[in-house]
Every structure is written in structure tokens, then in C-alpha cells.
Design a protein that fits this description.
32% of the residues lie in helices and 14% in strands. With 118 residues, the protein is α+β, with helices and mostly antiparallel strands. The protein is globular.
Length: 118
């Protein structure tokens, strides 16, 4: 009754962001899994996080300890990861400040950066 509902996610809707290279990869890998299921930003978020972990493992030198993995993740600075820019922010211990807002049915999600430098 006159109230708008805002739904946010830390990643874009994979159905409305098909131009991003990581989304294309995700769709290809998940094709079999998604048969009979509705796709979800939560699936995509998990895929993105696991992909970043794999990237950190590939970049790591030596034994893959939790410390070494953290060091690799902390080293992401203006890193273009398959269409996403990843920046580790040490003060907040996060890799991204982007929030994606669902603008409504049939509309593209809106990317909002919480930092002026992005």
C-alpha cells in the first residue's frame, strides 16, 4: 500500500548481467545444476566467492595455509576479476563495497559503490 520494497545483494542478478565474463562462465558451469531450479543471486555469490578462493590459491606461493590465502586475498588491488573490480579494503577487511539493488521486474539491477574512489 504505497510502500516500495528494496531488495539488495552483494552480486548482480546473473540473469540480468549476462555480459560479465564471470556470469558467462557461471552460466556454463551451472547449466546442468540449474535444470529444474530457479537461478539465484545466492548461487552466483557462492560461485564468485569460490572462484576468488581458487584465484588466491593459484597466485599463492608455497603451502596453501590460511595465512597465505589471506595474504593473497589482501593483495587484490584494482584487480579485474572476470568483469568485477576487486579491491581489498584493510580498514574494513572486505574485497568490495559494491551493492546491487533490484530495480524491479524487467529492469537492470543498479550498482551502487559506497566509496567515491570506485
Amino acid at each position: 500500500r504505497g510502500i516500495d520494497l528494496v531488495v539488495t545483494s552483494v552480486v548482480p542478478n546473473p540473469d540480468q548481467s549476462a555480459d560479465l565474463p564471470l556470469v558467462k562462465e557461471y552460466k556454463s558451469v551451472m547449466k546442468e545444476f540449474l535444470k529444474g531450479r530457479i537461478d539465484s543471486p545466492f548461487y552466483f555469490e557462492s560461485y564468485l566467492m569460490l572462484s576468488l578462493l581458487v584465484e588466491a590459491l593459484k597466485r599463492g606461493k608455497g603451502k596453501p595455509t590460511s595465512y597465505n590465502i589471506m595474504c593473497e586475498l589482501e593483495g587484490f588491488k584494482d584487480f579485474n576479476f572476470k568483469g568485477f573490480t576487486i579491491n581489498f579494503v584493510p580498514e574494513e577487511r572486505v574485497l568490495s563495497h559494491n551493492i546491487w539493488i533490484n530495480a524491479g521486474i524487467g529492469k537492470n539491477w543498479i550498482k551502487v559503490s559506497q566509496h567515491a574512489h570506485e
